[in-house]
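Record type: ASSEMBLY
Status: queued
Input:
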Amino acid sequence: MLTVLFDGVAYGMLLFVLACGLAVTLGVMNFINLAHGAFAMAGGYLAVALVNRAGVPFLACLPIVFIAVAVVGLAMERLVYRHVYARSHLDQVLFSIGLVFMASAMVDYTQGSAQQFVGLPAFLRVRFVTSFVSIGAYRLLIVGFCGALVLLLHYILTRTGFGARLRAAVDDPRVASGLGINVGAVFAITFAVGSGLAGIGGAMGAEILGLDPTFPLKYMVYFLIVVTVGGGAGIAGPFFAALLLGVADVAGKYYLPEVGNFVIYTLMIVALVLRPRGLFAR
Amino acid sequence: MIDRAHAALAKATRWHPWEFVFWAAVAAGWFLLPERRLLVNEIAIAGLFAMSLDLVLGYGGIVSLGHAAFFGFGAYLTGVLAKYGFTNPILDLISAAIASAALGWLSSFLVLRGSDLSRIMVTLSVSLVLFEIANRATWLTGGADGMQGLMFDPLFGSYEFDLFGSVGSAYSIIVLFLLFLAARRYIGSPFGWSVRAAAANPLRTAAIGIPVNARLIATYSFAASIAGVAGSLLAETTQFVSLDVLAFHRSADVMLMLVVGGAGWLYGGLIGALGFKLLQDWLSGITPQYWQFWVGAFLVGLVLVGRERIASWPRRLLRR
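Status: finished
Output:
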């Protein structure tokens, strides 16, 4: 029971790290980016290449993945995404699905369609077993790491100048730019950081979520659930939504394996119909 | 004044000469390409499906990422009916139309509220829920294996579905044409104009006394019914139903077909389906596995160049 809860929390934290970039994209620019998972996939494959082939230690590869995927995200934002912000939602959907298809096919072409695994060091494979709970060291690391990340993000968002500029841009981009805030630059940086975080999430999640070319499509719905059910910008809403989703999904798969994802999707429909602006919206 | 309104409505729904040419070409396609009738069948079904999405997206203004829900529902319903011995193809088709309309009616209440994003999410998750049901209810749907070798009675007792799709493709084309007539009538009627008004400006439309939600519900149900028929046609003519009919890529593909041909125009879906399937047939002959890459590249290019600009080409050529 506690084990399931703990695994669910770890899973939820992972989902949050994966999806928080998407929350900002949606919240700031009202941009529907279905291709967010592609950045996570890139991070995952990069981690596989670094750890398994180049022999980089797992923990050391995480910052490399973050920077690399953030740079890719920044480049993508400046080169193509920027031109699509002002378009209709239909265009955004078509555009980002197109990106997902391309990313999946490219990964399939270069890496094959088999599932990939990141070689974890031995000290992360340990399980701490007591009479009432069994905790894997790796999941403990995820909870600790992601928890610290959440606090850090919260701090940046609420206590720093950049966070203030970002919040201003979220609330009203026009007024913010009138006050001399470079909304485009703020957004580009946020997009890059969000992509980088998704990359870390992909690298850490390869073990738990599974990593193959269908990753962006398979988890697209999960990311969208975190963001829409959590509601808008801000950290708290998506974070609690991610925890809820993680615990519900793990518990559902553990106790009711024959039902599958049915419960999650149904709950999401109900949540969206009752609270179209998100469960935790202001 | 009313006379002028009548005249304007009638003018907008009058048959243009090229429309006759279009349908004559469709009929000619069946006669002239006897060895490609399986492809013709696929195109007709995809066209019907895309036309149904056009009603939702082009006319109703609802961005749906889960339109395959109704397609797959129709297909599975037909498959299950055939499995339990109800093998009359026409009756199965009608059952699929009615049941899909009912499903569309029920789920339409979910998409009335909320922004584009929550509509996308809700339509997507309706199709995912159906996918999960089809996947898990193995005793009914065959699960991941699907239902193979479904047998249907000969059409009208005398035309048996053959291996080369001759009967199947003719059947699909005829159903497509009949439903096209129905959709054309629906869209061209004053009722259809009020649907367009409801999508374009809900607030004003409500202010002049048109019930916006009722119009959207009716259109969504009608479109769902057509999508169900398309799915049912696929099940009958290929005698096979699998999870693929509910898969996400089907919803994405049909959206691509529609936007390529041009949404908000009944021929858009048909032309888009024709182009899409021909391209798929050609490209998958060259790079079978990476077809998806080209779909993606095409979508990205389409948006970056400007959808309206591209979509106006066929229309400009035909209307002039």
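Annotation: Chain B touches chain A at residues 57, 63, 65, 110, 113-118, 120-122, 124-126, 128-129, 132-133, 135-136, 248, 252, 255-256, 259, 289-290, 292-293, 295-304, 307 (CB under 8 Å).
Annotation: The two ends of chain B are 28 Å apart (CA to CA).
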